[in-house]
Design brief:
By secondary structure, the protein is an alpha/beta fold. It has helices spanning 20-32, 86-95, 143-157, 180-197, 211-221, 237-243, 254-260, 277-288, 309-326; strands at 11-16, 36-41, 77-81, 101-105, 117-121, 131-134, 164-168, 200-204, 226-229, 246-250, 267-270, 292-294. It is built from nine helices and twelve strands.
Length: 328
């Protein structure tokens, strides 16, 4: 994936292991900075992938050919996310004589001073002179994208009764368990919500949802006004965000919650078994600031200023890069 080419735009590489959540944060930042970016999805080799970055020897030679290789010419700006990309960032910085501006998203497993800029969510504890703190994660939702995507999918949902409720479904991860019983509970609550409010559902699943959970959702939604996207055809995710009157988001994804909150619409969180200190802090912070409320089986109405963290962080990053450029 490449950014749109243009004159006098700085070149940028986005380097991750291909995880959607990591990659989307990097792309969101690159788009907000108007960089001419190229996405690089790397596959690291054993045993190096298990070692801390300071123990890697010749990191750029520890990439498997099944992924992207990293060779000159080096980019003006390098945005990385995830531990596998950290040794690559350090190596490229050195190979390019410190000329590449290195930006890492999420807390690294090395000193933050190894990068020019580190961006962490508020619920991470890392702080420092080159550390920028965002409320939650970065993303790709912009008013312009929502308008385009909303227009693209408007006809497809025109016959569905209002209110339209977007349901963003994630899946199990290291902190949360979304098993069949949990998805049945969610699906049953959606059915009851329709019976009470007469609403329609715009449902999207993720890579982590799993075929069994998707089948359960499909069975429960049968006979209800809805659309269910599980990966086939054009992705309506941004269109659903734009067209929804309210949203229900599973608690396992900081990215989905933050993207939903860029709209200024009611965002209800469907709580899951599990959690940890970081997730608990994040969800409490979002509720305390008025962005989200727990989903209790009813649609609630409230408003708040849309969350625009990607735009805010990008402005800070742009100032740092500009100051660095002026300083030579």
């Amino acid at each position: 994936m490449d950014g749109t080419s243009g004159h006098n735009r700085q070149s940028c590489w986005i380097v991750t292991d291909g995880s959607a959540g990591m990659e989307n944060q990097c792309i969101g930042l690159a788009e907000a900075l108007d960089l001419d970016f190229t996405v690089k999805r790397i596959v690291t080799t054993r045993p190096w992938r298990w070692l801390p970055p300071q123990l890697w020897l010749n990191p750029l030679h520890r990439l498997d050919a099944s992924g992207d290789l990293l060779t000159p010419p080096w980019p003006d700006v390098l945005i990385t996310c995830g531990r596998q990309a950290i040794p690559m960032s350090l190596a490229i910085k050195k190979a390019n004589g410190e000329k590449t501006v290195t930006i890492h998203i999420q807390t690294p497993n090395c000193k933050a001073s190894e990068f020019d800029i580190v961006i962490v969510p508020e619920h991470d504890r890392l702080r420092g002179p080159n550390v920028l703190v965002s409320l939650g994660s970065l993303g790709r939702v912009t008013p312009e994208r929502l308008q385009v995507e909303g227009e693209k999918f408007a006809d497809a949902v025109a016959d569905l009764p209002r209110p339209l409720v977007a349901v963003l479904v994630g899946g199990s991860n290291r902190c949360y368990d979304m098993n069949a019983d949990v998805i049945r509970d969610l699906a049953a609550r959606l059915k009851s919500l329709h019976e009470e409010a007469g609403c329609s559902f715009l449902v999207t699943t993720s890579r982590r949802t799993g075929a069994e959970n998707e089948a359960i959702l499909e069975a429960y939604l049968a006979g209800l006004p809805h659309q269910l996207w599980t990966g086939d055809g054009a992705n309506p995710y941004f269109g659903y965000l734009a067209l929804a009157d309210a949203l229900i988001v599973t608690a396992d994804s900081v990215n989905m919650v933050c993207e939903a909150c860029t709209l200024g619409k009611p965002v209800h969180i469907f709580e899951l078994p599990g959690g940890n200190r970081k997730f608990n802090y994040f969800h409490k912070s979002m509720q305390d600031k008025g962005y989200t409320r727990p989903f209790r089986g009813k649609l609630e109405t409230w408003s708040y200023p849309p969350l625009q963290e990607t735009r805010r962080i990008a402005a800070e990053v742009a100032d740092i890069i500009a100051a660095r450029t002026r300083g030579g």
